[in-house]
Amino acid sequence: MMDYNVDGDGVATITWNVSNRPMNVMNVETMTAYAAAVEKAVDDENVKGVIIASAHKEFLVGADLSVMGDGDASMLEEFMRVLHGIFRRMEKGGKPFVAAINGHALGGGYEICLACHHRIAADDPKIKIGLPEAKIGLLPGGGGTQRLPRMIGMQQALPLMLEGKELAPKAALNMGMVDEMVPASELLAAAKAWVLGDGQKTKVQPWDKKSFKMPGGAVQSPMGQQAFAAGNAMLHQRTYGNYPAQRNIMSSVFEGCQVDIDTGLTIEIRYLIATATTPECKNMIRLFFAITEAGKGAGRPKDIPIATLTKVGVLGAGMMGAGIAYVTAMAGLDVVLLDMQQAGADKGKAHAEDLIKKRVSRRRMDKDKGEATLARIHATTDFAELAGCELVIEAVFEDRAIKADVTQKTLAVTGDGITFASNTSTLPITGLAGASSRPDNFIGLHFFSPVDRMPLVEIIMGKETGDGALAVAIDYVKAIRKTPIVVNDSRGFYTSRVFGTYVREGLALLADGVAPALIENAGKMAGMPVGPLAMADEVSIDLMYKIGKQTQEDMGDDYIAVPGDDLVQKLVEDLGRLGRKTAKGFYDYPEKGDKRLWPGLADLCPPAAEQPSVEDVKMRLMYIQSIETARCMEEGVVTEKRDADVGSIMGWGFPPFRGGVLSLVDTIGIEDFVAECDRLAQAHGARFSPPKLLRDMAAKGEGFYGKAA
Amino acid sequence: MADAYIFDHVRTPRGKGRSSGALHSVTPIELASTALRAIRDRNDLDTANVEDVMLGCVAPVGEQGADIARVAVINSDYAESTAGAQVNRFCASGLEAVNIAAGQIMSGQSDMAIGGGVESMSRVPMGSDGGAWPTDPAVAFRSYFVPQGISADLVATKYGFSRDDVDSYAVESQKRAQRSWEEGRFKDAVVPVVDINGTTVLDHDEHMRPETDMQSLASLEPAFINHGEQFGFNSVAIQRYPEIEKIEHVHHAGNSSGIVDGASAMLLGTKEMGEKLGLTPRARIRSFASIGSEPTIMLTGPSLAAEKALKRAGMEKGDIDLWELNEAFAAVVLRFMQALDIDHDEINVCGGAIAMGHPLGATGAMILGTVLDELERTGQSTALATLCVGAGMGTATIIERL
């Protein structure tokens, strides 16, 4: 687990070699072994200095989340105190320590490097170095908030920690996060050379010297004051105060860097515990695991062999089709991109070309590989070219007849043994599958726009869709490095259906006389990427009108009207305000400058004299999404909580600090949530009425993820 | 309870608060001493009777640090027995110093005291004293800190004052200040600052631009756009006031208070002490008050402070003949007039800090003195002086001419 070796020149090497975990991680067991090795080296008169190394591909990837103590703060505190004791022993033991960074050094794995007197990284651009804790709602608590600012200055260190950046060795060297970069094969030799050379004059950390000054200026300097005043506001702007980890990182640096390092570390522990015990942190850690699981294809039928896809057909070279062709080619698959007109097909391919050129110009791809990728896309109008495709995805116009036509034309060429997928976002899959002679091979693959950037694919099971098609769909989504969730057929499936409630609740608020700015700000303050009215403009109001009308027709008496329905009709039919595409919607879009709320809204929906609090508005906008998701669970549209939460975060930008649309319910507490919903239903309509699923859960006091804490 | 009477007040002229300003060569301790010596000499005062000197100072560091009031007492050759304390109520420090002095007298713990203030903004810049509010992340987040300029623009946005509204107000302030100087309304209050050789350094308010008109103001860029947009402060303000879509930036150097150097002092005491020393009481303190209110919008405290002081005095709005509100930003005065329904003819009749400048620690006592002089000049009876104050406070004082 922890190899220890002293060579003939008196250089000790402690090599991390954890065998009972997939990676080198810090936990009680490994840190105990590490501490013993450090003691041994420090106590050994013959040892002149110590190299910290790894026998794994990675250097050290931080703490095992088990040390978080599952909410038990005293366990975490104890672990951190022991860890700080070991790190201080390295720093003050009188012997130079050097980190030989051969692979990823992340979180605690980089913090151990900070406690060394010198850091050397292998010159390998794949290596990631940094403190990514904030990404899962945590704070770098192994001395990161204290040592990194003392090493490279607060203004450099803060963004790295607030954004959880992971840097390649070269960038880390430029930032001063590592001191040297050498070819991988020379790493240990370079470390040894440093120990016997400069290391013999570098046995004390800069921050342990009396003469220490914060690089770049102290907290209480004019520079420091300006940096914090602006930094606080910019962080507040970015996070709306929803992310305690970021705020606590700021505080830990601000308070801890005004005092000596030991007091600073004590302050850091306080903030670590304060952060780790927040619901936000727990939500983000759960989400992290959920996304990882979903990304591995957790919903895949186990006993079906992995499909090796080589050739994929994409029908329709519009924005979605072109995007699908691009991500498929990027995954190394051949693509037949088919459109009615050759010019259309070529335009779709040109979109992929643009994206590839951009990557090449940003040096994220070399030119040859870019050309090879583009060459994989074959633009055509000829269905015969689809021969040999294992999977064909249609992204043609949302019209049942057209979709049926291309389905049949395709299967005539490929045979009906292939998997046929529809990228529809509105039409039920079961109906579309009727066009196929093998509805069990017909499945929905709902991509999000823009395809190249959106990480989620919603896989929709028609009534007759079989496990074989599901397995192929998941294997394909994994191949294009996106995250699949699996849902059952229903109007709007899962993501569009629930997301729609956010936008429609925004309209309902407007119809209720709530000031438009208050609605929009409440949406953003709740953590949504944009306000509901701005979102309506993006989606386009006439599309909402069309979908709404269709829904009303289809549902008949079951349709629950929302106060904003009339408003949409008026905007589309009387006023011609269709949204962003016409530069007129809920907002005006001037040619110059930012969009502004259309002043005419005040006549359409006169603001009420008494306005609700922003908290009430936030509640309506967010709770309605959770309620609709619970209905989806109840109806069996979504069967996995994981998929519901992951889909909400990656599909429509539900705020990560909430952990997802179902986690929100647990954060509020199931009983409180149901009581609030009843109150909202009474005040605003039956759409807030909690489904039976929630009532039953509340009766048992059980949330989606276990008993309420 | 005893009454506190005002016997006299003085102020220095206000010099531009930058290196080219006339008072930049004069130390803040000399500015304060100028005011203290003047009030002693022109009243033939035996300073052994002055029990305490309260001086406002908002950046009490460096040469303004370490209790500048007591050091000014010593430097002005006052009696050793005169104590001194520096007061910080941000922009209302000078008025708060007067109120504390009055409070000592009214509570029977002192017979004579001086309240005033000093600020050399050219030598000890605003913000030199740091502070937790903007910088400490826990504090800044909890309280939605934004700088005052953003608050001023927030006031204008929320209460509907356009760029034209605030600029018109500024033009009028310049006109009134010029007329007041021309008519000699300040001549009794202003004591020239002289150098160590007795040569006059400055004898008039240096910051005024009487030629200001709407056109010249229109050419000025709003001052707080960058702060608001680039450093996130607009967003912070909107998170506190989510009914607002966008902060309209209307304030600039021409419709905000000028950064200047200056000092002030006001002599207060009991009736008996006045009689003993042969001093004529000029006004009586009717009441004073300070309040706290929402700190992000920060600058709407004066109406609340005024209402509280009126209530304390058992008075109503209609009982006040003249109003004086520090012109920190034009929108602050416009909002005050809107909130209390006050006519522009009754407020800041001699101009204010937009024209003449706002030496932070000193202004409060200056404007109270100005409005007292104006009561005497016009024969009116009551006045209320107030200032908006950082972090959402407000301070007000009501006086009655004798």
What topology emerges from the helices and strands here?
The complex is a heterodimer of chains A (709) and B (402).
Chain A: E1 2-6, E2 11-16, H1 28-43, E3 49-54, H2 73-92, E4 97-101, E5 105-106, H3 108-114, E6 118-122, E7 129-130, H4 144-152, H5 154-162, E8 166-167, H6 169-175, E9 180-182, H7 187-196, H8 222-239, H9 244-256, H10 261-276, H11 279-295, E10 311-315, H12 319-330, E11 334-338, H13 342-361, H14 367-375, E12 377-380, E13 391-394, H15 400-414, E14 419-422, H16 429-433, E15 442-447, E16 456-461, H17 467-479, E17 483-488, H18 495-511, H19 516-525, H20 532-539, H21 541-555, H22 565-574, E18 587-588, E19 596-597, H23 601-604, H24 614-635, H25 641-652, H26 663-668, H27 670-684, H28 692-700, E20 702-703, E21 706-707
Parallel strand pairs in A: 2-3, 3-4, 4-6, 5-7, 6-9, 10-11, 10-13, 11-12, 13-14, 14-15, 16-17
Antiparallel strand pairs in A: 1-2, 7-8, 15-16, 18-19, 20-21
Helix pairs in contact in A: 1-2, 2-10, 3-4, 4-5, 5-9, 8-9, 9-10, 11-25, 12-13, 13-14, 18-20, 18-24, 18-25, 19-24, 21-22, 27-28
Chain B: E1 5-11, E2 15-16, H1 28-41, E3 52-56, H2 68-75, E4 83-87, H3 93-106, E5 112-120, H4 132-135, H5 137-143, H6 148-159, H7 163-182, E6 193-194, E7 200-202, H8 214-218, H9 225-230, H10 233-240, E8 260-269, H11 271-277, E9 283-292, H12 301-313, E10 322-325, H13 330-340, H14 353-356, H15 363-378, E11 382-389, E12 393-401
Parallel strand pairs in B: 3-4, 3-5, 10-11
Antiparallel strand pairs in B: 1-8, 1-9, 2-8, 5-8, 6-7, 9-12, 11-12
Helix pairs in contact in B: 1-2, 3-15, 6-13
